[in-house]
Please model this.
Amino acid sequence: MQEIKNVFDNFKYFFIISILAFPFYNSLCSRNKDLSYTSQKFQYEEGEGRTNQSDFEVIIKDLQIPWTIIFIRRNEILITERAGKVKIFNLQYRRLIREFLIEGVKHIGEGGLLGAAIHPNFKENNFVYLYYTTEEKGNLINRVERYILKNYELVKDKIILNNIPAGGIHNGGRIKFGPDGHLYITTGDAGNSDNSQNINSLAGKILRVGEDGSIPEDNPFGNYVYAYGIRNSQGIAWDAEGNLWAIDHGRSGIQSGLDELNLIEKGKNYGWPVIQGDEKKEGMETPITHSGEDTTWAPADLIYYNNSLFFTGLRGQAIYKYDLINKRLYVYFFQKFGRLRAITIGPDGYFYVSTSNRDGRGYPSEGDDKILKINPEIFFDSVRYKLDGKIYKLLVADEPGEWSRGLMFIRKCTDEFYDFSYQINPCLNWCDGMLFIFPDRRVRNFWNKNTLVDLDIYWIDNDKVIGRDFLPSFEKTRKIYTVASPSEVDKVVEIIK
Model:
């Protein structure tokens, strides 16, 4: 099988943790044949190496433990700082617009102002949700509160959820709206591991709450609890098919290690503190993957992008990519920026990542803490090739799982200032399509299942284009189209229209 790989810069480190073989599938797509098309030579070139500056840049400096990054407009981000401030920055001019000190925040240990989320209809209702630690009647608690952000004024609206157990450690704190319109909240065990197995406690859980603080009727236990047996999750994300994923901190202290990536299902028990790592017990779930006993990620935030889950590492000091198709884990930027915490995807398709070197456990360098803007292209194999006199940049699919997935759920970036769907189906602004490389020659069948964009398909045999088809998106056709190559081919190119 021919492989075409990117040239990785010397600052990018990766290793493969595990490999899972997949059975062979023909990739499917559909389009109408263009009989007027004539054959021509197909040319490809290996992906060119890039300078460090084009891969990432520091866009904001001198923050105090930034915990969450969310976009409120195309060029404006809202950042929470754990000590209690909300800051709004304009990215075009890279300047601070406004900052707000959130009343009542108790910054103690790992507690403070943590997660933030905006309502899916933020453009209409201006709702911002904050998760923070506070003190009530002499006791520490965590709280989710709703605010209204309008004309750059942040006004308290109502408490959404109160009395989440808190402590100097293990406060969880990530909040995100799911595809179902409900607010999901990660909570830690607050230093008491017994909380995690108690379905009547809000600690050590994934919670699911209505936008107004109500309990959804289909929650599994008749309360706010959606899943339990969690130690200290600080990141959740949904993949393109609506599956919920969560990262979780493993054991602490001298042992450490056994950090987890879990596929979250309603009502399931994820084992803490009864089982860890590969241990099994009836009625409890083992993680999809974990760090092992000798490695610590300290995973801090999680996103989904192009068939992969990306999470940051505090103690791990890296960005981790888990390839959902090939079941492999890669590590990037190892020890380059120190501790990494927040990660999000902008409407422009770039990653935005915060350092956390001023949280008392890192070694601050000049300008910390920072927000980094990273080109996601560096995390994927790509190739430049020439077709019709034009050079395209393509993702490479040279393994069975990649052939069957293709460009499902991929979409192009638009100029909309905010589109909530980009958090579930992020856009690719650096990619023109995909090159499929097969180990043998045969007639190939493609279809348009879960295809969000129109595609031009080029059938290629022995580096010559022998035919071309057009595939409308499934959203246009609302039914499956299937097409076959005119004869045997060993490569196929899909170009996003």
About this structure: The longest helix spans residues 400-405.
